[in-house]
């Protein structure tokens, strides 16, 4: 049980990067972007091919980010310049990316089991290269085993991305991006180029998603053409759970909530799958149930609170009437 939760936490902290990307489009831009299912695989495919070609794992992951960024920008161009519906432009790009990803990988699946990856332990400290050598040395110096060390590094990377995103959303461009999601007509009146802002936002979002895909591919030891199917639901589940549990009063709190939501979601799914009557194929069903519960529960709680307030108000009014009488 402890190992399962530990593994779920490690996976959740990686998926949190993807959830931050989904948050950027669905909450900040108010754009229903389905490119995510394709760009996640694009990041994994580009990273896998780069690693096989001898590129250092972390640099390969950054290549994945760039590929996802380009994919997101194309979705934005289809919507803003091609005047295609937001939902449809994402669907079209997602479909196109399936073929593009197959072209990149050359097959439907690429194994990284025999390759040096960000998460794979090397044979010795002296044989390591690049970022992996640095990580091995740091783990050894801190007295950490590899598993705890990887989680520590992923927490640092995810929090760094979170703080950079917080900083960006408070800059002039970031504020304009948020205003675009709130009211495009209003921000246009201030001479802001909303088309460019939408393209930039979608690029950043899918870049983060692709970066997460690159890391997931290295963690699992393979890149697969179907690994992104239904991923948008996972991202939305993380966003909704995080907002329901931790709140969204500020940008800092909202992005931190998204990270927490991704971890909680992964742990809940892992624990649910340990039930005897559930199978690995039930992950999507579990995800749907979790999202439904996360959407309905806060509304039910709010409704219950309002009913209690009305009841208390009626009792107070009744007592006032009695006192006057």
Automatic annotation (TrEMBL):
Keywords assigned by UniProt, alphabetized: Cell membrane, Membrane, Transmembrane, Transmembrane helix
Segments of this protein annotated with the region Disordered: 305-325
GO CC, one annotated term: plasma membrane
Localization (cell): Cell membrane
GO molecular function, one term: transmembrane transporter activity
Membrane-topology annotation of the record: Multi-pass membrane protein
Presence of the UniProt keyword Cell membrane in the record: yes
The organism's place on the tree of life at top rank: Bacteria
Transmembrane segments: 6-26, 86-104, 148-169, 196-216, 222-242, 254-273, 285-301
Biased composition (Basic residues): 306-316
InterPro entries in the record: ABC_transp_permease
Name of this chain's protein: ABC transporter permease
Naturally occurring in which organism (per UniProt): Alkalihalobacillus alcalophilus ATCC 27647 = CGMCC 1.3604
């Amino acid at each position: 049980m402890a190992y399962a939760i530990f593994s779920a936490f490690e996976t959740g902290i990686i998926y949190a990067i993807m959830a931050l990307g989904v948050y950027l489009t669905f909450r900040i831009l108010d754009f229903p972007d389905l490119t995510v299912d394709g760009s996640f695989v694009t990041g994994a495919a580009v990273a896998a091919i780069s690693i096989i070609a001898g590129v250092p794992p972390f640099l390969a992951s950054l290549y994945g980010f760039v590929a996802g960024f380009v994919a997101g920008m194309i979705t934005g161009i289809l919507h803003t310049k091609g005047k295609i519906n937001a939902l449809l432009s994402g669907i079209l790009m997602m479909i196109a990316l399936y073929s593009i990803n197959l072209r990149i990988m050359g097959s439907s699946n690429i194994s990284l089991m025999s390759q040096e990856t960000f998460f794979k332990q090397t044979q010795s400290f002296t044989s390591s290269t690049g970022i992996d050598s640095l990580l091995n040395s740091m783990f050894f110096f801190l007295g950490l085993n590899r598993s705890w060390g990887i989680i520590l590094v992923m927490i640092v990377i995810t929090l760094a991305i979170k703080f950079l995103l917080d900083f960006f959303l408070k800059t002039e461009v970031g504020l304009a991006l948020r205003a675009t999601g709130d009211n495009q007509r209003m921000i246009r009146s201030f001479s802001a180029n909303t088309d460019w802002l939408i393209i930039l936002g979608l690029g950043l979002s899918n870049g983060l998603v692709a970066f997460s895909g690159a890391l997931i591919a290295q963690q699992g030891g393979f890149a697969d053409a179907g690994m992104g199917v239904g991923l948008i639901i996972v991202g939305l589940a993380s966003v909704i759970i995080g907002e329901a549990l931790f709140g969204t009063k500020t940008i800092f709190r909202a992005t931190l909530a998204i990270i927490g939501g991704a971890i909680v979601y992964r742990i809940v799914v892992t624990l649910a799958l340990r039930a005897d009557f559930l199978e690995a194929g039930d992950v999507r069903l579990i995800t749907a149930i979790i999202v439904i519960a996360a959407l309905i529960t806060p509304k039910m709680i709010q409704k219950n609170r309002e009913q209690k307030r009305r009841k208390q108000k009626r009792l107070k009014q009744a007592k006032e009437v009695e006192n006057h009488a």
